[in-house]
Specification:
Blueprint lengths: L2 H6 L2 E6 L7 H15 L3 E6 L26 H11 L4 H12 L2 E7 L7 H10 L21 E7 L16 H13 L5 E2 L3 E3 L7 H16 L27 H6 L32
Parallel strand pairs: 1-2, 1-3, 3-4, 4-5, 4-6
Helix pairs in contact: 2-7
Subcellular location: Cytoplasm
Keywords: Cytoplasm, FAD, Flavoprotein, Metal-binding, Oxidoreductase, Phosphoprotein, Zinc
Enzyme class: oxidoreductase
């Protein structure tokens, strides 16, 4: 029997959102699948458009009676349904993929500074309360802290347009809600994003180089250090304390030229490229 090798096999999940198989996103997805398989990964792809994945979070996501039908509260009802095994089959199928995967890559075109609606629906419906987080298990206490996740996406705009002095503003600010508010909130170790800048406006040789760079990165992806966030122990995690940084922590930061992160900037300058690359800092 070769049970030991099968047990050791790692699993990667690619949550993919693009309508066209001829798109650059499809090429990036295919590169991920091929390279990860070459490394011995089992690769699962959730092609959301192909699956006709339902984006709307409604009471149809719950099988059986509602706890409070007179006032439907999606979070409460889905958490109870998750505990009792009464979530809809499409949600359960995706949750099983998440449970199996050590690595999750979200592959998509950046729309309106965020993910396409069908992928937002995946986030809303699959990462249910109880399964993905609780008030006790979130951020670096989250249930997925043993897993890694990252964003891989294309832009319509050039890189210069997403700089602090560019027309669209600092891309680090754009990425904070997705990387901190979704991925890290659920406990994931967040790897630096893979950004393909304006492939539709790039010549063939540039697009080819983009894909080759992605393939090269994939070879060492799991060895990368994740992005840096402020540890939860630096906060007073009580309603009385307002879930704010401990005063002593803020005092210790007074002389620092930059804030902790893009979000926890403390009124200071944003730390450069905080949401773009792992940085060696004193926060672990």
């Amino acid at each position: 029997m070769d049970g030991s090798s099968s047990m050791a096999q790692k699993t990667a999940l690619i949550v993919y959102a693009h309508q066209s198989s001829a798109s650059f996103n499809a090429a990036a997805r295919d590169a991920s699948v091929q390279e990860l398989k070459n490394q011995g990964f089992k690769v699962i792809v959730s092609d959301l458009y192909e699956m006709n994945f339902r984006a709307s979070a409604t009471q149809d996501d719950i099988i059986g009676d509602l706890k409070k039908p007179e006032h439907f509260q999606y979070g409460d009802e889905t958490m109870l349904a998750w505990k009792e095994g009464r979530l809809s089959e499409d949600i359960v199928a995706e949750q099983r993929k998440v449970e199996e995967a050590e690595l999750i890559i979200f592959q998509f075109p950046l729309w309106w500074f965020s993910v396409p609606g069908i992928m937002k629906g995946w986030i809303d419906r699959v990462l249910t309360q109880g399964f993905a987080f609780t008030l006790q298990k979130m951020y670096d206490n989250g249930g997925f802290k043993g897993k890694k996740a990252m964003l891989s996406f294309t832009t319509g705009a050039t890189q210069t347009m997403f700089q602090p002095d560019g027309l669209n503003g600092d891309v680090n600010v754009v990425l904070w809600p997705l990387q901190n508010g979704v991925l890290r909130f659920c406990g994931f170790q967040v790897l630096a994003p893979q950004i393909f800048w304006a492939p539709a406006h790039s010549p063939l040789e540039v697009r080819t180089a983009m894909l080759e760079g992605w393939r090269a990165r994939l070879k060492g992806l799991l060895a990368e250090e994740p992005l840096t966030f402020v540890p939860t122990q630096m906060f007073d995690l009580s309603f009385k304390g307002g879930f704010k940084l401990w005063p002593k922590v803020k005092e210790d930061q007074e002389s620092e030229p930059y804030g902790f992160t893009t979000g926890h900037h403390l009124g200071k300058r944003l730390p450069p490229d905080n949401q773009l690359k792992a940085q060696a800092t004193k926060q672990k």
